[in-house]
Amino acid sequence: MAIRTNRIGITSTRAGISNGVTDRAQADFRLDLVSLSELYRSGAAKPTEVVRLTYRRIAADASNPIWISLRPQDEVLEDARRLELDHRRIDAASIPLYGVPFAIKDNIDMRGLPTTAGCRGRIGAADEDAPVVARMRAAGALPIGKTNLDQFATGLTGTRSNLGICRNAIDGNYIAGGSSSGSAVAVAAGHVGFALGTDTAGSGRVPAAFNNLVGLKPTRGLISARGMLPACRTLDCVALFAVTARDAHVLMNVAAAYDECDPFSRRSRVQRRPGAVELRVGVLAAPQAEFFGDREAEELYERALDRLRGLGARIVEIDYSAFREAGELLYDGPWLAERHAAIVALLGAGLDGQDIHPVTRLAIERATDYSAADVFEAYYRLRTLARRTQREWNRIDVMALPTAAPIYTVKQVLSDPLETNRRLGLYTNFTNLLDLCAIAIPAARRETGCPSASR
To answer: Is 179 a catalytic residue?
Structure first.
């Protein structure tokens, strides 16, 4: 996206680094990659000190169920000491994530910790790291633990976990967004420098938007999904939560790799665009823009488009109808059967049905209404819609949409969980079905302080 954004500062006044770091640094200590790298290079901090800070910040936020499981602090400290001994001269080219603590959504495997997917009944530690976790570790990053999520990555609200509702990092009355709620809040609260999530319908973008982060969802298959518990296996993507767009770019370069053991993995094919050519940005035409009565969200979207114009972009109104209809197939069509298949596999492994969150059950129980013929009919319809969207792509280079038009309080979502979730996915659900990449970027703040993001 071409939206200009100020660098986001993750600060903490609760706990700072000891051992010689100034009081000012303690009060305004940033975990973005540039800030950490500068601290390490200058000798103002060491990875072991950052690890201790991370665990202090996590303890201070214990009332918010951000984390499902943590590695023992001593174990992470040992990893940090090894980094300090093995890389006394920090080489950003070979270890671009040197000493950066990170979080992992608890539907992605990390050796030694269970993968619960937000379900109490899933026990047993993973035997090995998922490839994306292994790549982050090899680049110098320090995994801290596993974060909360909408159960089985089914939902965009962050309220569908039997392990507690993860609250928004900026205003706890509001939802964190889902399904990667804990991953987003762990970064926004300053616990870690980045986090891994997943994105099938918007799970890596909606929580990023609601917590003032950058959320990157690559094209399907560019990051290996092996070692990730599937939601819709044909659509799932690993998502990246970062403090800045630059950080997201670095993380993507580390994470993306072809995996011959993942049947859905694909090799990257970068298409470069001439820099001198005017950027054509597709936007919602007024009759198709739906904000569900949220006038403030509508005004903030218009301001973001004004900033794009100021940067020299040419704004092009598009026909959004085919994108919208494609997105509706995800939860109002036979793709529900793919989610159902993933949960049935878990039930067959001995999970007690009582462990399924009631709203998760409600969301997927309609899957049995669809036949195999329905699946093929929906696929044919999707191909037709994809061809229609291509007409719009012939006129534009990128799209700039609201990531999610409204933001709801936890109370509002609990009173109407399915309708609020449907509204949150209006501008995100289509992307994986149409095999597109997307990024959520902070664009503005509401009067409440909660962010508004464009994508």
So the answer is: yes
